[in-house]
Amino acid sequence: MVTTTNKIKKIGNGHFIPLSAPTMDALQLRAGQQVTLSTDDGTLVVRTVDDDYAKTREAAAKVTQRYRRTLVKLGREGDAA
Fold first, then answer.
1. Quick one: the chain helix, strand, coil %, rounded to 5?
2. What is the pTM of this model?
3. If we measure between CA atoms, which residue out of 43, 27, 2 comes closest to residue 35?
4. What is the H or E stretch that residue 71 is in?
């Protein structure tokens, strides 16, 4: 377990908490990596985003957007059966 004390910093309209190299290593994080932040009873929880899952969701969103009308029609055909 790595414990550090940091100040929250403000840049423009955003805020960030700088993470030390030992903290990044302990969490197996890298600069630019996407994370999910949540709170649990006053505790900040940082979780890595599964890159494969995120890529799959992104691909599904593109397909859904491109073929929206077709998918709606297919859904209506399924209701008739």
1. 45, 20, 35
2. 0.51
3. 27
4. helix 68-80
Buried b (16+ CB within 10 A) or exposed e, 61-77: eeeeeeeeeeeeeeeee
Query: CB–CB of 54/34 below 8 Å?
Result: yes
Of the candidates 21, 41, 46, the residue with the CA atom closest to the CA atom of residue 31: 21
The separation between the first and the last C-alpha atoms of the chain, rounded to the nearest angstrom, is 57
**pLDDT, tens only, 35-71:** 889 999 999 998 888 777 778 888 999 999 999 999 8
SS3 sequence, 42-59?
Answer: CEEEEEECCHHHHHHHHH
Q: What gap in Å lies between CA 68 and CA 75, rounded to an integer?
A: 11
Cα separation, 71 vs 51, in Å, equals 26
Place of tokens 């008739």: 80
